[in-house]
Every structure is written in C-alpha cells, then in structure tokens.
Amino acid sequence: MKDSVRHKTYKRCLLAAGLILAATWLFCLPKDLFKGDCYSTVVLDKEGNLLGARIADDGQWRFPPEDAVPYKFAASIIEFEDAEFLHHYGVNPLSLARAFWGNVKSGKVTSGGSTITMQVIRLSRRGKPRTVWQKIIEAFMATRLEARFSKKEILALYASHAPFGGNVVGLEAAAWRYYGCPASELSWAESATLAVLPNSPSDIHPGKNRDQLLKKRNRLLDKLYDKGYIGKEEHSLAKSEPLTLEPGPLPSYVPHLVDRYWKSNKGETIKTSIDLGLQQQLDLCAESWNREFKSLGINDLAAVVIDVETGETIAYCGNASPADKRHGAMVDIADSPRSTGSVLKPFLFCAMLQEGLILPNTLLADTPMNINGFTPRNFDLQYAGAVPASEALARSLNVPAVNMLRMYGVPQFHELIKEMGMSTITRTSADYGLSIILGGAEGKLTEITGIYARLSKVYQEGGDFPLSDRVSLWHTFDALKDLGRPDEIDLRMVRSVRKAAWKTGTSWGFRDAWAVGITPDYAVGVWAGNADGSGVPGLIGARTAGPVMFDILNLLPEKKKTCDYAADGWFLPPLPYEGITAEVCHQSGHLKGLYCTQADTLLLPKTAMNSAPCPYHNSEDGLFLLPPAMEWYYKQHHPEYTAVAVKDRPVMEFISPENGSHLKLPRQLDGSMGSVVFNLAHRSPGTTVWWHLDGSYLGQTSNIHQRTLSPSDGEHILTVVDAAGNSLSLKFTVE
C-alpha cells in the first residue's frame, strides 16, 4: 500500500515537475528579446540609400533591426559559426560535445560550442557571466527561440545585434562603418571579414591584429569555396582583396533633416522621399552660391525642391555648408519661421480673382498712404498713381498690395493662409494687420514652397483647396512668369532653360531674401540671409535667392509627357467652359462700361461678372479720368493722359493720411511733438490752395500741395480751399 502511494506521489511529482518545466520553457522568452536596446536613427532616400544617421543614446552604432540577411553574409556566418544551423533545433549536441572535449584536453576554454541561436540568446542577456550554468540556460532558451521564430528570423536577429568591434553593433552598421555601403552590396571578401569579427570583436577587427584577421577571413573563404558557395575565380579574387582600414564616417546628406528625424523618430529607420542624385546636385549648387554670398556678409542659404505630382520633398538643404563651424550653420532655416516679405502676394491676387473682387488688369491705386501711422512704400520709393493688378504683382508693388488687402479683408486673408497650410500664423488677424501682406507674418520655406506646389497640382489635376479656380490660377501664373523685376533687377540674363512662375520677397531691414518658383513638375523655394537675423544691404530676393532658384530649376529633369505641356513647356491653358469670356476696358481693366472706347476680350473666372464696371469712363465723350490723387502720379508716367476738369467730379483729394485716421505722433529726442505730412492732389496743380486747421489759417501752397504739421492730441479738422472756391475737409485724431 505504501509502495503504491509512494509510486503515485512520485508520478505526481514528475508530472508537476514536467508541467513546471514546460511552463518555464513556454514563457522563458520575453516578448521582445532586445527591448532594452536603443538604436541609431537611420535616414534613407526614396531608393533606400543612406542619407545619414545619428548614434544611439548608449554611444553605439547600432542600426534598427533588419528583417533579412544578405545571402553572402548569411552563407559566411553560417559556415564560420554554425554549419548545422539550418538543421538543428537551437542546440547542436555534437558541437557541444566537441567543445567540451576540446576544453578538457587543453585545460582551458577554447571553444563554446554555441549555435547561432544560442548566441542570439546570449546577446539578448547582455552582462551575464559565461559559465556552464549560463550555457545550460542559453541552450534551454534557444530551443524555445527556435519554436517561436523561423531560421531566417533568428539569423536576422543575430546579424542585427552581433558586435563587430569598437562601438559598431549589427551587420548594417558594420557594412557602412567599414565599407561605406549597405550590407546587400558587400563582396564575398567583405562578408567573410565581417563574419569572423563577432567571434572575438575586442581582439580582432580591422584596426587590430590585422594579420590574424586576414588569416581567419581567408580560411573562411577557402571553406566557402570547398562548399561550393563561390567559384574558383571568385575565390581567388576575394582572397586578393585587401582588408579595410579603420571605420570611416557615414554619409552625411541632408544633415538638418536627419537631425529633425533624430528628434522626432529617435531609434527608427526612416525612408524619405529624397532623391539622392538630385540631392547631391542641390548641395553642390547651394554650397557654390553660399561661398559667393559669404563675401557679401550673407552667411546662410536654404533650398527646398518639391515634386508637384506627389507633393513630396525630393531635395532639401536646411542650410548650405553645414560643416561650417559657425553656430548659424546648424540652424535648419528651411523649417524655421522667417519674415515672408512679398511671397504671400500671389495668394491674395488669386483669391481676389477667384471671388470676383478684381480682374487680372484692374487698376489699383498706387499713391502714398498713411493708415493710422502705417505708411507702406514701394521698393523703389516711387508711385505709379494707378497700376494694373497683374503688373503690381509682377513688380511686387507694396502699396497696391495693401490696397488689395483692404478690399479683401485682413481677417479673411488671415484665415485663408492658415487654411492653405501656414502653421506659423499663430496670432490674431488684428495683431498682424495690413502688414501681413508685406512680411509682417512669418512663414517656413518648407510650407510656403509646399503651398506653391499645391497650386501647380490643383491647376493641373483639380482638388479641394482654398484656391482652386483654374482661370484664376492661370492669370496668377501668367503674371508671375515675367522675368523682369523693374523695382529690383532684370533677371532675363539668368541662365534658365525652364519657364517658371516665380515670386521673390525681401523682408524689412534686408534680413530675409526669398524666391519661390513653380513649373508643371516642380516647386523650388530658396531663402538667403543670416540665421541670427542680421540684415545686409543688398540682400534682395531677386538678386540673391532668385538666381539660386533658377540654377536649381535647371538641374531638374522634365517629368511629364510632351502632351501634358503647352508647346512652350508651360501649363496648358484653361478651357473656355471653365470660365466666362467677357469684354474688359483696355485702360482700366474693369468690365467694359457703357462709355469705354477700347475693350479686350478675356477669359475670366465666372465670378468676374459680379465685379463693378469701369468707373473711369462715365460720360459720352469717352474721357478716361482718374481720381485726383491717382491722377497726380499717373500722368507723370503716362504723358498721353489728359487731365481735365469735369463738372460734378472732385478737383481735389487728400492723398494721405486718410479721412478718419488715428495718428500716433512720436516724441522727438528733445521732447517736442513729432509731425505728420499731409499731401493733397489737385487736378490743376498750379492753382493756389489755402490750408486751415480747426479754423485757423496755416498758409498756402501751389504746384506741390503738402504741409507738415504737429497737431496736439485730440480730434482735428483740416480744410483746404482753392482759388475757385472749392473746399475739402479731412478729419483725423492724434493720440
């Protein structure tokens, strides 16, 4: 009876032990073997070429794990480390027995007998002592690893975490550090060299015990030849290859982009849309221009190239010459907010066309203005009086742009550019005010170039975007394709083989120079200046960023078929049904009115019929008459213009400031009140005009009607009277 009880107890103990052993085996492996490891950040181009990498936080060059191992290295490592790898279940008893007998005969440890699977376990249990007990644990866990993963996966784990000497861990990192290429491109000699390194990486590597390393490599090559992996000629050539030298530097393209991914995707492999061949050309171009600009005190240059069809960035220069020791060279200008200058003007022009607020050649006022102390001026400090909207855009005139924004509305434009993708618009529209169109807002080169690219794509393919009317976009592109910039520099001498719609911008104080251009295929954005924000006289968009942009455009191959372009390589024009054909006054650019004598027929956005007819022809005699302020400047540039007095038309007009203005007059250094200039236009400039402030006589003017005043705080009325008795009053408040 006792024997029976004892037997049952024994069986239960065996069963319990078996269950415990089975459970231990089943759960002995953590879900992630290498959970504690940290990896390098690796950035690749669109074809998988290495653009750059950043070392792991523990100071190791350990690339993120790969899913597969190249054939040459797989054959080499299996033959060197574990010839029966494909046939055992994690442990090779014969190998262990040979190792044990060899160690006994020599009186010391000369071989471990570990399989590749066991070595994966040892690598995952970093820091454990190399004892017999630990070897038993490794063997036990290796059998579980074999049950969980395929041979291919186990080999990939080994290749990704094996040491290759120094701070180089993993096959891919070793291939780049020692040979400057991906593991898939290693030769037989290179693969064999790397295969023998993990066996004793601290004792033998390309920088230490090279003779011994060479012998081990060649013995492995002999074995590969004997096993039929390589032929006689390959074997001979492989053995003749010299060993590599010390580890070399990794590729370092788009360093600012690599840094950005290092901060946001640390420890990952990121495949980008960058085209390495194009990137190399962009870098050379940017570095060449950067050297030239530095002699002018312009130290930093950034450029972005976007593929219109995909919307992807295919070349990126965060800042040229990143190897420069200057602090500014490390700033990723391409992704940093900078004053936009005039590069937002095309968005306003297109939006107003799309909503029917203007037509392509609508005359806009270009006269001095003072809007509550805001006094925008054109680049050349000249005024045209009245200028067609398309010409104002092509010449980047500031005063007409401000007048357009007043018509459109700052809040509406503020919302538009946010909706288009400008993440840098973080303040209220009131904070920006009218200056938002002249560089009062900040933008990123990456985002603004992306918006220009989207306009090109939407024009060609359609899509949901705030600016999507094809006729409006066509007129916008048409205005921007003129290479002449009378207010800056004539760039028709630029060596360009590519027709482009482009816009330049220069921020206040000559701190930022922009140029953004689009074709049916590409959008190119360039910024030049100093990262620290210091201005440089002569830092102007068309003179610096413009030529760089065209040089980059010249590098880019045509992508689309000939049938996708117009005959000159430009955008195909919109179809008649996409807009409306209407007659437009030749002189004013408005819809033809009853008394307009000359008209042009244009394809316009359908909303154009909501715009006003010509306001400057309103009598049967067909006279073209502008308001006095516009007329004063317009006739200086148009000698054919005839100024005549017409009944019921005003003969005088205040140019600036505006009626109802709130003026802030700064104190002078001596404490006295500052002053403001009041400008008046009269259809007959030679006439005498008498000036009165709040009923007090100030004096008279003729020819040039201008007064400089220093009114006290409060509300005031300025009144002028001409020789014919005509009078005009202006109300303003001084704060």
Describe the structure.
It is a single chain. By secondary structure, the protein is α+β, with helices and mostly antiparallel strands. Helices cover 34% and strands 17% of the residues. It has 21 helices and 26 strands. The chain has a five-stranded antiparallel beta sheet, with helices on both faces. A five-stranded mixed beta sheet has the order 20-26-25-22-23, with no helix packed on it. A three-stranded mixed beta sheet has the order 2-1-5, with helices on one face. It is elongated. The model is unreliable at 485-493 (pLDDT under 50).
Highlighted features:
alpha+beta, 5-stranded antiparallel sheet, 5-stranded mixed sheet, elongated, 735 residues
Strands, helices and their partners?
Elements: H1 2-27, E1 41-44, E2 50-54, E3 61-62, H2 71-81, H3 93-106, H4 116-124, H5 132-148, H6 151-161, E4 168-169, H7 171-179, H8 188-196, H9 210-226, H10 232-240, H11 255-264, E5 269-271, H12 276-294, E6 300-307, E7 313-317, E8 338-339, H13 345-354, E9 363-366, E10 385-388, H14 389-394, H15 398-408, H16 410-420, H17 429-432, E11 442-443, H18 445-461, H19 470-480, E12 484-485, E13 489-490, E14 501-506, E15 512-518, E16 522-529, H20 545-555, E17 580-585, E18 599-604, H21 628-637, E19 652-656, E20 661-663, E21 676-682, E22 689-693, E23 696-701, E24 705-709, E25 714-722, E26 727-734
Helix pairs in contact: 2-8, 2-9, 4-5, 4-6, 8-9, 9-10, 12-20, 13-15, 13-19
